[in-house]
Amino acid sequence: xxxxxxxxxxxxxxxxxxxxxxxxxxxxxxxxxxxxxxxxxxxxxxxxxxxxxxxxxxxxxxxxxxxxxxxxxxxxxxxxxxxxxxxxxxxxxxxxxxxxxxxxxxxxxxxxxxxxxxxxxxxxxxxxxxxxxxxxxxxxxxxxxxxxxxxxxxxxxxxxxxxxxxxxxxxxxxxxxxxxxxxxxxxxxxxxxxxxxxxxxxxxxxxxxxxxxxxxxxxxxxxxxxxxxxxxxxxxxxxxxxxxxxxxxxxxxxxxxxxxxxxxxxxxxxxxxxxxxxxxxxxxx
Length: 285
Ligand SMILES: C[S@@+](CC[C@H](N)C(=O)[O-])C[C@H]1O[C@@H](n2cnc3c(N)ncnc32)[C@H](O)[C@@H]1O
Fold this sequence. Notes:
Elements: H1 4-14, H2 19-36, H3 40-43, H4 58-67, E1 72-76, H5 82-89, E2 97-101, H6 104-114, E3 124-127, H7 133-136, E4 166-170, H8 180-193, E5 201-208, E6 213-214, E7 231-232, H9 235-242, E8 252-260, E9 276-284
Parallel strand pairs: 1-2, 1-4, 2-3, 4-5
Antiparallel strand pairs: 5-9, 6-7, 8-9
The site of S-adenosylmethionine has 17 residues, from loops.
């Protein structure tokens, strides 16, 4: 279940020395999280993985914060917060990170797993629904200077005041949770939060298909699992969404590749079908 580097990361962040005690803790928070909502990502233990650091754009994120130490990062659909914990361990200042999720239970379980509290782990967590425009805002992407001051994260309750201020957004295993129309709405809303500064980036990975459409090859939906009702983009449709629909054409570079998903990470899979993942990054020019 754990790669050696993930086990080492968890032991050092939790302060535990006994691997069996760590595994017991992981299984106990997994049970609580499944009770809250049984996402496949919880069942396959994604909350203990260091997936963000395996994305091809990770080094770019770390270079961005080196060149702009005040750069604000949002992890949207952060779940337990394991990805932001990895980013912080690699040098990203915790006070410049915002994590957000519909379900605060997952974030609280992150504290339980990593044995932290808001005092020892001062990342700003904003519970909320990205489909709620009072939370995420209704602004359009910013092209000149943002018309607001950068907000003080300590008083923040919504994402909307961040319009035009985020230098980076990470969104993994997130977009595929929404219908095609809502994926576009969420992309527009997140695009509006991104700073117009050259190099600002939104990146991640989620379920895809070589040709866009419903994932008809999957099993029927089950609790926590969209199955054959899941809408998936392909690399071209994802590129066209960001370059032309969300942002004015030619103002961003979109990198998007569809790759076959490793079978061992799939918990709900018919043996005869291949599943795909989109790995992507949109960078402001
Ligand atoms: C499949 S998990 C992915 C977690 C993590 N990003 C990862 O890559 O492992 C999806 C996360 O998105 C959150 N989520 C689902 N719908 C949401 C919404 N409408 N607004 C905000 N977060 C949402 C879920 O609560 C969950 O933590």
